[in-house]
Design brief:
Shape: globular
CATH superfamily: Imidazole glycerol phosphate dehydratase, domain 1
Order of helices and strands: EEEHEHEEEHEH
Distance between the termini: 22 Å
CATH topology: Ribosomal Protein S5, domain 2
């Protein structure tokens, strides 16, 4: 079973999570409705089982909760995957969502890197701070030890743009974690 559990507790957040790369229940509660929607979509489209509970200093803003959730989820991904051996390693995917189109490409290499190219349309102050999407994915990639490229090709609705990016990454990860049982996919013989 490719599973992991973890808890992260700081002065700003308390987060517990459990991840199963091969599926299962999905239950997400971060206290940020739109972010819950994005993490749920990520798990669903990646085919992952995920339970995640985050309590953060939302009276300040959502930044700490979103970034620390990326730290926890990235760490869970790395622990559940274990060795990067025996998986497809690479995954790339485009996702259209109405007028928006997003792309993501993942390399389960053990080398942490995020390339982010997304400009969101202006939205009212009461909506989710879409700039936090990049913070989440950077924290995820660094703590998962993967290379992740994400690009918003175009879009006019910030909700659609952000959701297309999360779903594109989910499908890229789903492809990359497929078990092949083969030696590491590397000309060096190891990652």
């Amino acid at each position: 079973m490719r599973t992991a559990k973890n808890t992260r507790e700081t002065l700003e957040t308390h987060i517990t999570g459990e991840l199963n790369l091969d599926g299962g229940e999905i239950a997400v509660d971060t206290g940020i409705g739109f972010f819950d929607h994005m993490i749920t979509a990520l798990a669903k489209h990646a085919g992952f089982g995920l339970t995640l509970k985050a309590d953060g200093d939302l009276q300040v803003d959502a930044h700490h909760t979103v970034e620390d959730t990326g730290i926890v989820l990235g760490g869970l991904f790395k622990s559940a995957l274990g060795s990067f051996n025996g998986v497809a390693r690479y995954g790339s995917f485009f996702v259209p969502m109405d007028e928006a189109l997003a792309f993501a490409s993942a390399d389960l290499s053990g080398r942490a890197f995020l390339v982010w190219s997304a400009e969101f349309p202006d939205v009212p102050d009461w909506e989710f701070d879409y700039s936090l999407a990049e913070e989440f994915w950077r924290a995820f990639a660094v703590n998962a030890g993967i290379t992740l490229h994400m690009k918003l090709e175009y879009g006019k609705n910030a909700h659609h743009c952000c959701e297309a990016l999360f779903k594109a990454a989910a499908h890229a990860l789903r492809l990359a974690v497929i078990q092949t049982g083969e030696k590491p996919l590397s000309t060096k013989g190891s990652l």
